[in-house]
Design brief:
The protein has 530 residues and is α/β, with parallel strands linked by helices. Helices cover 33% and strands 18% of the residues. The chain has helices spanning 23-34, 66-70, 72-91, 117-132, 150-153, 167-176, 218-231, 249-260, 267-279, 288-292, 294-297, 316-320, 350-360, 376-385, 394-404, 411-419, 484-494, 521-525; strands at 39-48, 54-62, 138-142, 159-164, 185-189, 203-209, 232-244, 301-308, 321-328, 341-343, 364-370, 426-431, 441-447, 504-507.
């Protein structure tokens, strides 16, 4: 049995002294921040880490400019219109050689170059398999683009409705069929939140894949989800795919900036870039808690599964995004099972889990907090970068984080384990419903019924971190001029002790408050996306 993965990395050589954290030093930092003309209010908290290290996190509410204060709704509309313009331009380009596999515009955040054909085929095939497995003959796809999914799914349906906000995308699909779409395929132009052309209960499944990141805010997302529920018939589903998660956004930003940085780059400069990326993101982030909470808000929602992506290609989509499957009215396979949950440390390794399944053959086994090999090293790096006593260089951060993440588990190893663990095989269910910031996931292995048929679904725990805004507002970052690096420079000028600055700087969309008007410290600590 392998040792548990450490919760925090041990730091190698650091760049300078670390100031003592006292209440007065926290208040002094707040005063320095609020002296900046672009800051409305700040709250500075001391964070205690598992290894005893303490760091400062500064939560800063920028002073809103007139555009935000006057009409945020209009800014949201402008945000949608800007993305529409981007894709109108993309789809106006000459047709590719294979119009059913048009992957132009799919860029890697790490390199800025187009993703390879192999990476994109893996991503498309994995998505298609997951949707086909949900079993619908009448599908509605919103944000269909050039038909990467449509061309692979339409043949197995009786009716396929597809819409996109871009007229160019709709025409591109029509042209791919020689101007004569097959019987049962209906194409129309509309934004994602306008399903007025779809009669209620007229489809079995709703699909919106790799589109939610272009929504402006939670209100827009709500309209899409409610419209989809109305369009889907009894017993159907909603599939929201390729979703960006705020829980792991800081880890993603750290990994991305470290991949670009020279080995000897100062770690402090890398941290500034990480903060800038987190605080000025231009795409929507949706915490899994949003989907987990739908059952309490929409009476028809019977079950929600929050699924890590499948596949071994190390793309940002496979590593950092997730799918949500929302079952309406009933759950296929009957009442979901709920195993007696154990911590991952009860088995500690894939090899030990294999032995336990082979020897004990449990009907169901549930394990919580499986360390995620796709994300854990990046999260450890983010933690190191946020410490005032951080390692001196980018290379040292990378090496320390990789060492701390040894023993983490590749999710695909668990899915494959269920398929070769003897007869009958196990169905493996993975969940990101708890949205842990280190990317850890929960797993349940359910023995396939002896008589065949699908294994039941699993009711995973979904206790989130303290209350938080589950959906970001990416258009805020477009209308503010408060740059994290300049704010840090401002603080250094006003504090006698340079080491008394924040380890992490978070720009807020709004300041969460308790019922009596005080800052909600629990909600602040749970803001993962910055």
């Amino acid at each position: 049995m392998s040792a548990p993965v450490p919760a925090t990395p041990a730091a190698p050589r650091t760049e300078g002294p670390v100031a003592e954290i006292t209440e007065e030093s926290l208040r002094a930092l707040e005063r320095a921040l609020e002296a900046h003309p672009g800051v409305e209010r700040s709250v500075v908290l001391a964070d205690e880490h598992a290894d005893g290290t303490r760091t400062r996190t500064a939560y800063v509410l920028p002073r809103r400019n007139e555009a935000v204060a006057a009409d945020g709704t209009e800014l949201g509309r402008q945000y949608v219109a800007e993305w529409q313009g981007v894709y109108d331009h993309v789809y106006a380009q000459p047709e590719p050689e294979d119009p059913t596999f048009d992957i132009r515009g799919w860029l890697s955040s790490y390199t800025g170059a187009e993703l390879s054909e192999e990476d994109m085929r893996d991503w498309v095939d994995g998505t298609v398999r997951r949707i086909r497995g949900l079993g619908a003959r009448r599908l509605l796809e919103v944000g269909c683009g050039t038909g990467l999914l449509l061309h692979r799914l339409v043949g197995g349906t009786d009716r396929y409705l597809a819409s996109d906000i871009s007229a160019g995308a709709v025409e591109r699909i029509r042209a791919s069929f020689g101007g004569r779409p097959p019987e049962g395929l209906e194409l129309f132009q509309a934004p994602a939140d306008d399903l007025s052309a779809v009669p209620p209960g007229s489809v079995d499944g709703f699909v919106v894949n790799s589109v939610s990141q272009y929504f402006p805010d939670e209100e827009y997302l709500d309209r899409v989800v409610r419209g989809a529920v109305d369009a889907v018939a009894e017993g159907g589903f909603l599939f929201v795919g390729d979703i960006r998660s705020p829980a792991v956004n800081r880890a993603f930003a750290a990994g991305l900036e470290l991949s670009r940085a020279p080995e000897r780059a100062p770690a402090e400069k890398v941290q500034v870039l990480v903060e800038r990326r987190c605080c000025t993101g231009t795409e929507l982030l949706i915490d899994p808690v949003y989907f987990a909470g739908l059952a309490g808000r929409l009476p028809r929602v019977a079950h929600v599964a929050v699924l890590p992506r499948r596949g071994r290609r190390a793309t940002e989509m496979n590593r950092y995004r997730y799918d949500a499957v929302i079952r309406l009215d009933a759950v296929p396979g009957g009442e979901p099972v709920e195993p007696a949950w154990e911590p991952w440390s009860a088995v500690g390794s894939v090899a030990e889990l294999r032995r336990r399944l082979a020897e004990e053959r449990p009907a169901a086994l549930g394990l919580l907090g499986v360390p995620n090999a796709r994300i854990l090293a990046d999260r450890m790096a983010a933690e190191l970068l946020a410490r005032p006593g951080r390692p001196a260089t980018a290379g040292e951060v990378v090496r320390a984080a990789a060492e701390a993440a040894r023993g983490a588990v590749e999710p695909e190893d668990l899915w494959e384990l269920g398929e070769d663990a003897g007869a009958p095989p196990y169905t493996v269910r993975l969940s990101w419903a708890r949205s842990l910031p280190d990317g850890a996931f929960d797993v349940a292995l359910v023995r396939t019924p002896d008589g065949g048929g699908p294994a039941p679904e699993v009711r995973f725990p979904a206790e989130p971190a303290p209350p938080r805004r589950p959906v970001s507002r990416p258009w805020y970052g477009r209308v503010e001029n408060l740059h994290p690096a300049k704010l840090r420079a401002h603080v250094r000028e006003r504090l006698a002790d340079e080491a008394a600055g924040p380890g992490r700087l978070v720009l807020l969309e709004d300041l969460p408050l308790t019922a009596d008007g005080a800052p909600d410290l629990g909600a602040l600590r749970s803001l993962h996306w910055a």
